[in-house]
């Protein structure tokens, strides 16, 4: 079965392209041409019975929600509930980052319940299984890693994060420059330690063609991970981060040359004034491949509020050209997120993406905002609730206090600005 990229190269518009173009409000040829030039990807494993998701230039900003077990919490029912809540809140994709319990079984249950694309990080499974079996964390072979990747593809995973840019060269560059917080990516840290432990280069870099072959078989999108992403403001845009991006751009071209779609992952923690430049640099170095960003978080001192610090950075990043926002929850840096944390994280990322889509001029992005303004002018509360991003929360907030005049709210009451032009204004 040809991949979506192979079909686009032959000038074909697939059924999936047709379906997703309708959802995005663009012509099917727009999707096809974006896949052809690498600025758009469709995340859909050919074994996964879902519609798929189009991500990239000229399309609405998408949002991913991370779920998954840890060694300290292996309750799969809780993770299934998080997935359901995330999708209901508007997440476009789910990543299973499980590192505890029976990870293949957890993945199977999640995929059976999930209606949107699923992403994974295969090295987590291999490392976690080593620890669970009493082995050293780093006692994994190249074959162990590729067997996991093959299994994820066979199971129907739509996109995988792989940290191919962690190489002897990039690790050496990081050490020579010096970092305040070193490597904060779990996958990146494992690969860096493997390089030291085994004395060999990253197997995903050395045997990259093997990785590409697996992805091509299943039309599984490669999400080239940012193992050198900055984990604090002080490390943003340093030589290690930039060097990794250069490597990822080269690897993206190699994958695309063999009909495999590619996204690039990005920072991380970053001061506001560096975000736009980083997006433009990535797009330049990676031939405009879709950019998948975590945040960026614009300050390091807001644990408990990092869904807000992330949304601020995400709005700036997406307005500058980032295509896919990975949510951050209020629990970031503190603990495994709860169901409510997941909902809040998705909502914050959706707000950031929507604000960016308005700034980018995405067709129809401002329609609901204009409709909200008209409903407010008419003091039409029911329409306002139906339009807003979280109707349930809006209704609950309004119901907490009861204005004397049902047309207004308790903020302004009789001094409501909307009513100043009416004949009834000021009358008893």
What does this structure look like?
This protein is of the alpha/beta class and 428 residues long. It has two domains: 38-360, Alpha-Beta Barrel (TIM Barrel); 367-419, no CATH class. It has 18 helices and ten strands. It has an eight-stranded parallel barrel, surrounded by seven helices. It starts with a helix and ends in a 29-residue tail after the last helix. The model has no long low-confidence stretch (mean pLDDT 95).
Summarize the structure.
By secondary structure, the chain is α/β, with parallel strands linked by helices. 49% of the residues lie in helices and 10% in strands.
- Tell me the CATH architecture of the largest domain: Alpha-Beta Barrel
Helical amount: 40-55%
CATH superfamily of the largest domain: Radical SAM ThiC family, central domain
Instruction: Kindly give the count of domains.
Output: 2
Unreliable stretches, pLDDT < 50, 5 or more residues?
none
Highest-level CATH class of the largest domain = Alpha Beta
How many beta-strand segments?
10
Mean pLDDT, to the nearest integer, reads 95
Largest sheet: 8 strands, parallel, barrel
Radius of gyration: 23 Å
**Gross geometry:** globular
Strand-residue proportion: 5-15%
Trace the largest sheet across and list its strands. 3-4-5-6-7-8-9-10
Counted by DSSP, the helix tally is 18
What name does CATH use for the topology of the largest domain?
Answer: TIM Barrel
Report the structural category: alpha/beta
Q: SSE order in H/E notation?
A: HHHEEEHEHEHHEHHHHEHEHEHEHHHH
Compute the separation of the termini in Å. 74 Å
